[in-house]
Specification:
heterodimer; A: about 300 residues; mainly alpha; Tetracycline Repressor, domain 2; 13 helices; B: about 40 residues; rod-shaped
Chain lengths: ~300, ~40
């Protein structure tokens, strides 16, 4: 074997350490949180705030991969990542993650405000310490509580723009928080063997597929209610209300299809794969229509 | 062979770092202008 870890890491591997695909969703929700706020910061400050959210998410990805290198090596889905594949040494990943996280928080504080910097710091610490280190290897509720980490960006975007926290960003926080379990449990149903092999107590591994399917369905109901809530509360207009009602109805129908499925083989889990794919589209669409409602229709 | 690869990667990373530092300086310039505009 070539000692690739002795080489300086390739920039593509450093980029992969930040989980760019996860980062794109985080940046999108953060940007929408900012654009939905009643006032916008100057372009340079708004851009910097979104950049800091992206860098913070990158730091979370790097520290997550640094901590989970042994677990990643056991799962097919993650075995080719830079650390388990031996293309990068752990120490570099740790230094990169800590440095990037600290830099993002400081820059956010200096460019936007210290409330958004504190929220960014809290989200990084929550994701790394509470979710990755504490919850994920210990409890099937890891995704439920850990979902809070992914729910922060919309709150941070709003706080960066306004310097305060309002009812709408709190509802957006609750939406992402309640969206996370159905999203990840749909995935974990069809990659269950991977999680079992790595010894991660994901819901399907611990409670079984049917119990997970029931919980996916039950979580989708309050998630849909929270998604639509800003409309009757007068925080958004009818464009958001009607579009989100339709999008959420489809989500619940797809969750019901998952509930009705009895398959145990991933090849027969089309409803689960459909729900997982739709859940990503759903979040993009709800946040997109929120911004459209704020800037076009209301 | 290994040494050549080390040098190649170091050069590539140094080039990227130079671009990032340059971009950071430009960003700080615009942040400063925006802060002055806000009077903070």
């Amino acid at each position: 074997m070539t000692d690739t870890a002795a080489l300086p890491a390739d920039w593509r591997d450093i980029l992969a350490l930040t989980k760019p695909r996860v980062m794109s969703l985080v940046v999108f929700t953060g940007l929408c949180g900012m654009l939905a706020a009643p006032q916008l910061p100057p372009l340079a400050l708004g851009f910097t705030a979104i950049l800091c959210i992206a860098l913070g998410a990158g730091a979370c990805g790097a520290l997550n991969q640094w901590y989970e290198v042994e677990l990643d090596a056991k799962m097919r889905r993650t075995a080719s990542r830079p650390l388990p594949a031996g293309r990068m040494d752990r120490q570099s990943a740790l230094h990169f993650g800590v440095g990037l996280g600290a830099f993002s928080v400081l820059l956010m504080g200096l460019a936007a405000n210290w409330l958004s910097a504190a929220l960014l710091a809290a989200s990084i610490l929550f994701y790394v310490l509470v979710y990755t280190v504490w919850l994920k290897p210990r409890t099937p509720q890891n995704i439920v509580i850990g979902g809070a980490a992914g729910a922060f960006p919309a709150l941070i975007g709003w706080a960066a723009a306004t310097g305060e926290i309002g009812a709408l960003p709190l509802l957006l926080f609750a939406l992402v928080f309640l969206w996370t379990p159905p999203h990840f449990w749909a995935l974990s149903l069809f990659v269950r063997s991977d999680y079992a092999a790595a010894g991660i107590p994901m819901m399907p591994v611990v409670a079984g597929s049917q119990s997970t399917r029931r919980q996916i369905f039950w979580y989708s109901l309050p998630m849909a209610a929270v998604a639509v809530a800003p409309w009757p509360l007068g925080l958004t207009g009818p464009l958001y209300g009607l579009a989100t009602s339709a999008l959420s109805l489809v989500f619940v129908v797809l969750a019901a299809a998952v509930l009705a499925n009895r398959a145990t083989e991933p090849s027969q889990m089309a409803p689960e794969k459909r729900l997982f794919g739709y859940s990503v589209l759903y979040l993009f669409a709800v946040f997109g229509v929120l911004v459209a409602d704020r800037w076009i229709a209301w | 062979m290994q040494e050549e690869e080390v040098v190649r990667r170091q050069r590539e990373r140094a080039r990227i770092m130079a671009w990032l530092l340059g971009a950071f300086v430009v960003l700080l310039f615009f942040i400063t202008l925006a802060k002055i505009g806000l009077g903070t």
